[in-house]
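Thanks for the sequence, V.! I ran Protein kinase domain-containing protein right away. Repeating your input here for the record:
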Amino acid sequence: MELLLAWVYETKHLSSSNGPSTWLFFTPHLQTKKALTFVCVYVWETLLSYFSSVLECCALHETESPVWLFVAMRYIRSNSLKRLFSLRRRSSGEQILSPNGSIGEENDEHEEASRRPTWKCFSYEELFVATNGFSSENLVGKGGYAEVYKGRLKEGEEIAVKRLTRTSRDERKEKEFLTEIGTIGHVHHSNVLPLLGCCIDNGLYLVFELSSRGSVASLLHDEKLSPLDWKTRHKIAIGTARGLHYLHKGCKRRIIHRDIKASNILLTEDFEPQISDFGLAKWLPSQWTHHSIAPIEGTFGHLAPEYYLHGVVDEKTDVFAFGVFLLEVISGRKPVDGSHQSLHSWAKPILNKGEIEELVDPRLEGAYDVTQLKRLAFAASLCIRASSTWRPTINQVLEIMEEGEMDTEKWKMPEEEEEEEEEFWGFEDLEYEYDSSFSMSLLDSIEST
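Predicted structure:
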């Protein structure tokens, strides 16, 4: 039933968009032969769209579907068959039917390019050559189920290739592979890592742009490196919030990432953050308020209480994780330390006392902007509230961080709902509650080196 509802939602979205469904209204203006051609193309593209949508829903709702079939249908759909069958003419002055349903001159090159596929299917040979045969010298990250190699295409573009290891080719990992393709293939934002393509020959591969600086986690916690300065940390915090805001509000589907953490935030050469790893992502139709998910998956120290206690997932789940990420950026501390104390449990009493200077990474030696620190700390304190009702949306978080009004009275909780420190869930509570059933899959996630 969940899949059926998702399919109905998707097809309704397709029919309401400026796509092939608008073509039929204009067929009376065309010659009979042309009209018949457009009808055939419409039916063909609609069927392809439906099949592709169903397969994408299968991936995003963890329903079984063959990897090769999903990729094949997505590839066929993205290659814009209407350009193959439509009766466009390169001759000047001829009337054509544009995709938005209007009759006019041929679209310019920019509009044409905007409808081209955003990712491609690579051959195994291309990736093999690009990574020097997947050599150990090109290996930049390794986990329990995937390996990441850097490479260079023959055109000169630097790439990162994520390869699902043969020992982890189980059903769950293949579903995560499908989910990542189905989700990230629809997003286009400077603060989201762009997917260049995939490969299903001789294994499962995802191809991304290479993030030359690696992950935020590696730069924050590698003792061999100089500490990130405050200006860079602030830029990372703002950019990540913008990317998350896009996922929640900006793209055509609301996407819940479910695994926002420093190791999944990659950095470009100029330290622009990009959200990556959509293996656990869920898209949330506008009619739905939340997902209910089991088993629980994610990363210790980042999971919102309502998620690991009840399996409830919505935008506020990501907001909580982002709050932990903010604390990590400010303090330079890991989400869980050697004593199993979570970062947010450590920071909560400090925030309550208003002694925010104690949060700051001592390696900065006081070199930080006090006003910016106050804004980031205030935003973090709201994000990590145990009650999702009293957490802000990511849009509100972004406003606070970007010179918006910090109205403490607006966010003051009623006395009957104020959170006691001992009521704040920490890592030790999570371990107790879910010691036998908690999924460890994301503890094996890739971290760039």
